[in-house]
Specification:
Radius of gyration: 36 Å
CATH superfamily of the largest domain: Conserved hypothetical protein from pyrococcus furiosus pfu- 392566-001, ParB domain
Helix content: 40-55%
Shape: rod-shaped
Number of helices: 12
CATH architecture of the largest domain: Alpha-Beta Complex
Strand content: 15-25%
CATH topology of the largest domain: Conserved hypothetical protein from pyrococcus furiosus pfu- 392566-001, ParB domain
Number of domains: 3
Largest sheet: 5 strands, mixed
């Protein structure tokens, strides 16, 4: 991880601190903010905010937006801040790392933050893994979560389901995920039950497959078809022996047998189709 140089402690006005445009955390619970504001009123801010120099005498927040919002609610005139001289990239990495370590981000916010490092700064997954102290496979798994629709993401979070619940849904086609999530939520499936359910959807048990096999054709039905075929052949033969120009043609598919009979009358062809 990059180091920070020239750290300095400042007491800044909350209005002089601008929110971090790359803040990975997107949602702030109003009740939790008010609870933190009450604590700040009673005890002050124990952990300083982290900022870097901006333009026009302003400062850009690196980490601590929740504390900043709560400080404004508490009516603080000044807040303690640690000033760092660093680049926007390092500030973004620091903000993500601090939130991950404090477990302040949900798993989708982590995924969006990682994706922003790729989009905004051109970092590779391997570089991000090194910077955040995560395995490369962990970064890949988190980015895969973004394949879930916003609606699915919102429902997973509202139901307090885990990242592994979300990853299990990724095994299904997009068109089947809503119905699967309906069942997971309605039945209160835990992780093991969810993974088992998804596995059964992806790879149905053998007995379940048997239920959908087509009913075999009865031998008696096959005999009836042969009897009809023989009778029709005899009828055509009788007509031909009587001097009538007649012939038949048979076509068979998986679902039906078709006989086409042609009888010439007054030099005009008349067709009779029997299925």
């Amino acid at each position: 991880m990059h180091t920070f140089a020239d750290k300095k402690l400042l007491m800044l006005k909350p209005d002089d601190i601008l929110p971090n445009p790359n803040q990975p955390r997107k949602s702030f619970d109003a009740y939790e903010l008010q609870t933190l504001a009450d604590s700040i009123t009673a005890n002050g801010i124990i952990q300083p905010l982290t900022v870097r120099k901006g333009d026009g005498g302003k400062y850009l927040l690196i980490a601590g937006e929740r504390r900043l919002r709560a400080a404004k609610l508490a009516g603080l005139r000044r807040v303690p801040c640690v000033l760092h001289r660093t680049s926007e990239l390092i500030a973004s990495l620091y903000a993500i790392t601090e939130n991950v370590q404090r477990q302040d981000l949900n798993y989708f916010e982590e995924a969006f933050a990682i994706q922003s490092l790729i989009n905004d700064f051109g970092l590779t997954q391997g570089e991000i893994a090194v910077q955040l102290g995560m395995a490369n496979s962990t970064i890949s798994n988190k980015l895969r979560l973004l394949k879930l629709s916003p609606q699915i993401q919102s429902r997973l979070l509202s139901a307090n389901l885990t990242e592994r619940h979300a990853r299990a849904l990724l095994r299904l086609p997009a068109t089947e995920r809503d119905a699967a999530l309906d069942k997971i939520i309605a039945d209160g499936l835990n992780l093991a039950q969810t993974e088992s359910f998804i596995e059964n959807v992806v790879n149905p048990p053998k007995e379940q497959i048997e239920e959908f096999k087509p009913t075999p054709i009865r031998k008696s039905a096959i005999g009836d078809i042969k009897l009809f075929s023989n009778s029709l052949a005899k009828l055509i033969g009788t007509m031909q022996n009587a001097g009538i120009s007649a012939n038949s043609r048979k076509r068979e598919t998986d679902t039906f047998v078709e006989y086409k009979i042609r009888i010439l009358k007054n030099e005009q062809a008349t067709q009779l189709k029997i299925c």
